[in-house]
Amino acid sequence: MRKVSVKVISGMALLLALAACGGTSDEGEPQVAAIPGAVTPSGASSAGTAGSDGENVRQLPLGATKEEVQRAYDAYYACWTQHGVPSAPDDGGPLASWKGDPKKYQPAVDACADKQPLDAPELDPRQNPNYVDDLREEKDCMESRGYKMEIRGSGSEAELWGISSKANLEKLNSDQGSQDYRECEIAAFTQK
């Protein structure tokens, strides 16, 4: 799945930036999902997890809403809790507990790998041969709406970042920023 830096901090990006995946990065941190997602651990199933209403809450659609993202991560973190990862007392939730002692809680996180939310296939560079071009189109769309963006990395490692200035990040974090991000993501990554 596509990684977008925590620097792209629209409302949805912030929600996803707080969501850890089952694997770890080179720095030993959990892979972090952000809008629209994180790298899926190899071998992860693409099958969804049904919610209480029978809806697939694991596979996120292209341009997922904050509510869809929150529902998917609520189910994922509930699994962590069921497998022994406590919610941190400072309201950091299970992710904060995991970060406090990753070795202790990694087995619980691994047990929930089949519930880890998945981004839309269009956002996965392994499934979308036009990924980098689509990412550039998304960047152009966001910039045409007044956001300062950049692409870091190349190929399947390319990520969209919001430029770290107070004004730009506030604009990205706004409700309008979330809406613009969704619209640009859908426009850029929809098959032409």
UniProtKB/TrEMBL annotation:
Domain of life: Bacteria
Biased composition (Low complexity): 36-52
Keywords: Signal
Stretches the record annotates as Disordered: 34-62, 116-137
Signal peptide: 1-19
UniProt name for this protein: Lipoprotein
